[in-house]
Write a structure and sequence with these properties.
mainly alpha, globular
Amino acid sequence: MKHFSKEVAFIVAMFTNSLAISLLVKSVFGVSTLSSLPLVLSDIFSFISFGMMNFAVQTLLLLILMIITRQPKAAYIFSFIIGFIFGLLVDMFDVLLAPLSDLFILRIIYFFAGWVLISFGAALFIKSSMPLMPFDAFVKDLSLYFKVKVKLVKTISDLIFVTSSVILSLTFLHSLVGVGVGTIFMAFFTGSLTQWFIDRLDKIYEFKSYTGIALRLEKIAAIKTR
């Protein structure tokens, strides 16, 4: 099998997912399921940017993960830092993509490109075996802890996020914000596409760490199963 650097997988995933979220926002068909809640909250608390609200919500997920698994790990400190950097990247891509055309056909392209990219990025994050962004760490570690497929954990998490977004949006903003037909589509199918990418990558590549730092990070990111 061909070798694929876990370090490269991690870096590519960071940029891929942040770009994907910005493309989904630009499409106006509904952001990703994970980002729907931060987008609504950033509209409610307008003094906090979308990217930084992403960071705040994902930090909360880390706390929930530690409560469920009862395994506070040093890796989660890195996830906290990664979440902050990711929030900055999201805000950066929002600015860079702002000049793009809002033509309907192009918005369709933005949406499907964002959906594919965010699923591929999630798969790369998981295969990197390193401390992940908080949400990806949440999905990966819970799937390992309960010994279930990533698809199941991600789909359930996505549905919870969408439901919360709709309730908060209607309650505080009196309209649907960030949640659209695209969000519902992604809630049901992003988990499946992510699993598909993982399965395809496993057939082609053996993911390997090439640096001492990556090996140490991979070690502290490991989680005990149930």
